[in-house]
Write a sequence for this structure.
């Protein structure tokens, strides 16, 4: 049974409060946490006394670093991959609820915001970043792909920045995140409690944030927007790498670092991720989430996810052995298989509020 304190749920005045409470694990999400959050959000949606929702992370290091990938690893290795599919299904239902939530949903974000932490924040109405905010979707490093709505959000970012983030796993601060629209406001972490207190008192979020917001730091990646836009406009991973190599030859450090990073990732994940971004750009949110669940089902039955988690988290040797080992060995059919219908096992959304 999950620790009942993994997530703290309380109502304070007009605010429904959610605190992710696994600071030692960087507030990584478990199935129990997902379920508790869903129950609370359903309840508060029907409660007229609750005027806004606030979610934050405990500790100093992270809002949320993602899902509990160690649990996914051991479940897969022990033949219990259905447990991971249950987690992803319910996590995606939660992401969709946040996206369609009928009340203001404020994510107070400081420290690391990755993977599943993106899913429970970026779809909300207000994404409020502290000065230590760090955003990344590094899933290709573990043989996975940017899910939790990443296939919907990332391809819609300007100057192909989402493609750059997805294929490199690159990390950005709040200045660049604000320029891209990933965060809506910048507020000093020391003022987060003041924001909460004002929400508890029933003050409208837009008034609070107008008062508390500060100017974001510089967005250093903006200086490379043209290089990113040109290099990541390619239709294949190979053409993107060729464009990056060409830019690197002209002394672009960003292009050189991006190309080097991409070449360490799972070849299958890279090709599946790029194909998913191309598709997601034209899909409605719910359809993108259904597509992501299909990909999860196929990846959970494969090799690279478990090898990636082993190399990065379990053994920490940072030497994954990807299968196939090269982009050339990943055929178009290998990629397309990830998007095929699951038949009766498809992700189907019910009512938004239960």
């Amino acid at each position: 049974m999950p620790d009942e304190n993994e997530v703290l749920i309380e109502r304070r005045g007009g605010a429904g409060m959610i605190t992710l409470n696994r600071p030692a694990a960087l507030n990584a999400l478990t199935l129990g946490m997902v379920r508790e959050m869903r129950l609370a959000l359903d309840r508060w949606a029907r409660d007229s006394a609750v005027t806004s929702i606030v979610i934050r992370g405990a500790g100093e290091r992270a809002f949320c670093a993602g899902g509990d990938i160690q649990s996914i690893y051991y479940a897969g290795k022990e033949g219990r991959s259905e447990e991971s599919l249950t987690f992803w299904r319910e996590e995606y239902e939660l992401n969709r609820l946040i996206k369609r939530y009928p009340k203001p949903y404020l994510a107070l974000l400081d420290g690391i915001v990755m993977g599943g932490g993106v899913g429970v924040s970026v779809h909300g109405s207000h994404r409020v970043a502290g000065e230590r905010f760090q955003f990344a979707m590094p899933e290709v490093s573990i043989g996975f792909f940017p899910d939790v709505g990443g296939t919907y959000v990332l391809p819609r970012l300007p100057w192909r920045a989402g493609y750059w983030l997805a294929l490199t796993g690159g990390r950005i601060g709040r200045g660049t995140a604000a320029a891209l629209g990933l965060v809506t406001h910048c507020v000093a972490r020391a003022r987060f409690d003041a924001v909460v207190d004002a929400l508890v008192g029933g003050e409208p979020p837009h008034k609070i944030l107008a008062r508390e917001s500060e100017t974001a730091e510089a967005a250093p990646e903006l200086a490379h927007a043209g290089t990113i836009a040109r290099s990541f406009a390619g239709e294949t991973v190979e053409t993107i790498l060729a464009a990056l190599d060409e830019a690197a030859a002209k002394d672009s450090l960003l292009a050189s670092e991006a190309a080097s990073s991409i070449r360490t990732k799972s070849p299958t994940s890279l090709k599946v991720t790029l194909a998913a971004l191309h598709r997601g750009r034209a899909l409605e949110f719910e359809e993108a989430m259904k597509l992501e669940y299909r990909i999860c089902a196929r990846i959970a039955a494969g090799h690279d996810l478990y090898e990636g988690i082993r190399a990065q988290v379990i053994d920490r040797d940072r030497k994954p052995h990807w299968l196939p080992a090269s982009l050339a060995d990943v055929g178009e059919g290998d990629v397309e298989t990830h998007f095929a219908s699951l038949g009766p096992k498809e992700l189907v959304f019910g009512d938004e509020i239960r």
The chain has a mean pLDDT of 96.
